[in-house]
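We emphasize that the prediction below concerns an isolated chain of 402 residues; any contacts that depend on oligomerization or on bound cofactors are therefore not represented. The input was used exactly as deposited, without trimming of termini.
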Amino acid sequence: MKFSAGAGAEANRRVTLVMPLAEQRGGAEALLLHFLGAITRASRSSIQAWLEYDVVFLEAGPMVEACRALGVPVRVLPAGQMRQIHVAGRTIRSLASHLRERRSAVVLAWMGKAHCYSGAAAHLAKVSAAWWQHGFPGRHWIDRTSAAIPAARIYCCSKAVADAQSRLCKVPTEVIYPCVDLARWNVDELPTPAEARRELGVKGSPVIGILARLQQWKGIEVFLDAAVAVRRRRPGATFLIVGGEHSLEPGFAARLQSIIHERGLPVQMTGQQSCPERWMQAMDVVVHASVTPEPFGMVLLEALALGKPLVATAAGGPLELLGTRPDLACLVEPGRPDALAAGIELALRGECSFLTRREFASLYSSDEFAVRLNASLARLATKSAAATPVSEPSEATCVSRS
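Result of the prediction step, given as a token string:
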């Protein structure tokens, strides 16, 4: 998949993306597919794509075929467990060979874990390395390892994440806000809310829902506590929890089911869904309830794209995204069921404003995201296609959307 960069462009300006996961579990995986889909559409849209992309997955899974279906060259290099030093070394050497064969100018790791492999491979192949940071870095050894490996740039999903990353290492950061696929999250292509409820078997009114992986920090227990308060005022209310289990918290779904049963709440837990947009369309209010700061919160963009009243916790990415436009959502203090219930009531009363589709597309469409990321990668590619620059600037820089 190669696109012209215009007169005077280098013949081989290639980027290899390295993805550690091949199964869609959250926002980072969805964002990669949005990006590649936008690049694929470049020839018939406003995007001027300058680079040629291929993807190396470090495991096999459904996303491999999803990328191939987009026409993207794909290779699978099974990496096993990072603690298996001999396997990790073999993967790094194979990846370095791949970069040489492709004559890649930049290798972009999609997540810090992938940079543990691709950063080392970039050093061997003498190409520039960068990575996409979708979550807050922590004290995990993978975060520390990725931060210690040289890189030209770290792309971050929010300024909150960039600030946290800058405290961990001195690699320059650049903020590019994530996006949604407006072809998919398009209210004109979806059934009406009433039709969606009939189709999905959702009964009751109003319908209040949360879309999240089943993890404690996502605030789903707070959501259930708030549901009790909402039911006192609106006894016909029904609630949806749309999202699958997380491998790190395998018993959490059962715990939620127990809470629902004990309180007699009309809650439908759908599990992981391939068409979450249809479930969101069935909702009257969309809730984001994370009890610790969210790196960004893709569900916020999805709700805004569908014009849904939104309640969100005021911390991290959501505060950054919505703090300057408090009319777009009811922002509430994290971890407080009473505040969440009050926010839901305000949203049901029509207290939220909405972005027009044109406004949204100019800020958060997948085409806009692809333009910004591609342009930045093109700058990296032109700086040095021969060696990875040393990542010791005096301070991290943070560039937001422009």
